[in-house]
Specification:
seven-stranded antiparallel β-sheet, Rossmann fold, alpha+beta, ten-stranded mixed β-sheet, single chain
Length: 558
């Protein structure tokens, strides 16, 4: 198979869905007689756009590759309703691809993000010809990273996504006399997001009315939308082998990890690879403002047992889809992670690593972060949160408009604000590895009935630069004005804090426009805002801390 060079391409091949709607795909067929193991990618972004796996390269490697426009997008028929038809259409498309001339009848699905979700939705419906999936950089629970996070709206994702997806929708549905002006207005809206739509109240509603485009689901608040793409609670129906790829700075990091751990926990055949990447290509240096080295690249560098990450994926698909290769042994552990700070790949037998030990580092008075509990008389920390002047988004695990890049960025401007509490450790005498899920626990209260709490873990370099690793938000819809215990899920990371580095925790109440602003009134559908006075406690029965999964160093019982 590796010697194949000639590939035939058939464009706009129709597939009829159960309700009569025709979806179209480009089919890349290897030269020769076959039959060939078959790969299917279903995308709403246009089958001519760059894909996660190059279909020509995969066809040259001996796969029949099918790249299909989802319902209502580009060359496919039907009404575009985000996420709505992916289970039924996924089932029908798998069975259609299995019957294509040259297919061996065994289909694997691949792709990231939305077309990672299309795989999981098809797998839940269990088409008989589906033999493997590789859902990458995708979600598990839509209300934890896609539509919302901790109860706050993923505004930074929702607005630009709705606008950009609306371009093809308007091109397809409007008469020529109206089309040009409407598309131009939509593009202008996207380019003015920072000045206009992100600030409008109620969040997103005016923009949707202006352009009448389909909403992913976060702005409209339709609970059915989340259910259309929810994997959480349905993993038992996913019975085929799966290969999961995640990025430490990806908007859907935790969803990918959760999908892997759920399926592995059910005894399914599953693999996981996590790199230092954001959601967008090229998955190479720099990531944000940091360089992790050539070995961190997804493509072109043979740092895995079977080459680069695409080589690993295709070798895995061959074992799942080609009966002649089914007896070949796996060449790697089920989990492979890139450990930041040390900037090296490492194999693990499970995720999260079982040897991780939970350590509490306490937030103390005077901006101190320490392993020991604060003094009994430590005074609370306070700040004022004004929704009219929210803390700006600076890097992170996000998908937003281009001016808000994802990944690790120096947090100096954020940490200089009076509405951001900053707790910093002493310089470390030796390495400290944090690998696993991170949580911040606050004992806190607000003067407002409803408010948000945001926490962030950072790695402070010896030169003073503070780089974000992971963060999270919790929205208190009511009762925020009572002293209470608040848990903030920061998702997961893998980072070695090197000697001379310091740990830092930020605590604040906004990260805008990534998440919509809490108006502090208890009514997010209004335009009225209130200023909130926030208090974080430290002492006695009201401590606040960060819970870190620490990998013991050699000689510490590891």
């Amino acid at each position: 198979m590796s010697g194949l060079r000639s590939v035939g391409v058939e464009l706009d091949v129709p597939a009829r869905m159960r309700d009569g709607i025709g979806l179209r795909a480009d089919v890349y067929r290897p030269a020769g007689d076959g039959p060939w193991p078959t790969l299917l990618c279903r995308t709403p972004y246009g089958k001519d756009a760059p894909e996660w796996i190059d279909p020509l390269a995969a066809a040259r490697a001996g796969f029949l590759v099918v790249v299909q426009d989802t319902r209502g997008r580009y060359a496919s028929e039907g009404e575009w309703r985000p996420l709505r038809h992916e289970r039924e259409d996924g089932y029908d498309s798998v069975e259609w691809a299995a019957r294509l001339p040259g297919s061996n009848g065994r289909v694997g699905m691949y792709g990231l993000s939305y077309f990672g979700s299309t795989q999981l939705m098809a797998a839940i419906d269990q088409p008989p010809s589906l033999a493997a999936i590789a859902p990458s950089l995708t979600w598990c629970e839509p209300l934890d990273g896609l539509l919302a996070r901790g109860g706050a709206l993923e505004l930074g994702l929702a607005l630009p996504w709705d606008l950009l997806m609306g371009v093809d929708e308007l091109e397809r549905t409007l008469p020529a006399a109206e089309r040009e002006a409407r598309v131009a207005a939509l593009l202008d809206e996207h380019d003015r997001l920072t000045r206009n739509a992100w600030w409008e109240l109620p969040a997103g509603e005016a923009m949707l009315r202006r352009h009448r485009t389909q909403d992913l689901g976060g702005l409209g608040g339709d609970p059915a939308v989340a259910d259309w793409s929810r994997v959480a609670g349905r993993h038992e129906r996913v019975t085929v082998p799966s290969f999961h790829i995640a990025g430490w700075h990806d908007a859907f990091l935790q969803g990918t990890l959760d999908n892997y751990t759920a399926l592995a926990g059910l005894g399914r055949s599953a693999r996981l690879v996590v790199g230092p990447w954001t959601h967008f290509q090229p998955f190479a240096d720099p990531v944000g403002e940091l360089c992790f080295g050539l070995r961190s690249s997804r493509l072109g560098v043979p740092v895995h047992p079977e080459g680069d990450l695409n080589d690993v994926q295709l070798a895995w698909f061959r074992r799942q889809l080609d009966p002649a290769a089914s007896g070949e042994p796996e060449s790697a552990s089920p989990v492979r992670i890139f450990v930041m700070g040390r900037n090296a790949w490492r194999d693990e037998t499970s995720w999260p690593p079982e040897r991780a030990c939970e350590q509490r580092w306490f937030l103390g008075a005077g901006d101190v972060l320490a392993a020991g509990a604060p003094a009994a008389d430590a005074q609370p920390s306070r700040f004022v949160y004004d929704p009219a002047d929210p803390v700006p988004t600076r890097g992170g695990s996000l998908v937003m408009a281009p001016e808000f890049a994802a990944g690790p960025f120096d947090q100096a401007a954020v940490e200089a604000r009076p509405d951001v509490l900053v707790f910093t450790s002493e310089p470390l005498a030796r390495e400290l590895e944090v690998t696993g899920r991170v949580c911040v626990v606050l004992h806190a209260e607000s003067s407002a009935p409803s408010t948000d709490w945001v926490a962030r873990l950072c790695d402070v370099h010896p030169d003073g630069r503070s780089f974000n690793l992971c963060d999270g938000i919790v929205r208190l819809g009511e009762g925020a004005d009572r002293l209470r215990r608040i848990e903030i899920d920061l998702w997961s990371t893998s980072n070695v804090f090197l000697p001379g580095h310091r740990l830092r925790v930020q605590v604040t109440s906004s990260c805008f426009p990534r998440w919509d602003r809490n108006l502090n009134t208890g009514n997010q559908g209004s335009v009225r805002i209130e200023v909130a006075r926030q208090t974080v406690y430290h002492a006695g029965e009201r401590p606040s801390w960060i819970e870190l999964p620490v990998i013991p160093a050699r000689g510490d019982g590891a």
